[in-house]
Design goal:
By secondary structure, the protein is mainly beta. The protein is 14% helix and 40% strand. The chain has a single domain, classed as Jelly Rolls (Sandwich). The structure holds calcium ion (2 copies).
Length: 146
């Protein structure tokens, strides 16, 4: 009987580990044109991982920004970083703008992680900025909410 109870406990442990390994991941892909607040690609936030994926075009092809927009349905504390920082050019970074267009937070390098609190019901714009990217640069921005 004691053996049986032990077996159940380790089974429960395995189950909870595998459950957390499959925590919600939602991916949103950009849709061009998205070079301004009015053409931003909408996304939602939830507990787990939210991925924003796109390609930053060379500066000579179009305006060199990708805008994403979110209006959270809850207040969330999040960490935000690029998934593939080493493959991004120097100076590749992102900003968070409010609905007036003001920059309220930003990174300066591709490897920086931002800690940010999204307030419920407030619109935010996340802007991917390649500085002076002269090549097509695919990126994944990872927003993690524990
Ligand atoms: Ca793009
Ligand atoms: Ca764009």
């Amino acid at each position: 009987m004691k053996k049986f109870a032990l077996g159940l406990t380790s089974l429960a442990l395995v189950f909870s580990l595998s459950t957390s390994a499959f925590a919600a991941t939602t991916t949103y892909f950009e849709s061009e044109p998205n070079n301004s607040m009015s053409t931003a690609d909408p996304f939602s936030l939830t507990i787990g991982e939210t991925l924003l994926r796109g390609v930053l075009d060379p500066i000579e092809v179009e305006e060199n920004w990708d805008y994403f927009k979110v209006t959270p349905n809850k207040t969330y504390q999040a960490t935000i970083k690029f998934n593939n920082p080493s493959s991004l050019p120097n100076g590749f970074h992102f900003k968070i703008r409010n609905s007036s267009g003001q920059i309220i937070s930003s990174t300066r390098t591709s490897t920086e992680t931002l800690s940010f609190q999204f307030q419920k019901g407030v619109p935010y714009y996340i802007v991917i900025d390649g500085n002076s990217t002269d090549n097509y640069v695919p990126y994944t921005l990872n927003i993690t909410i524990p």
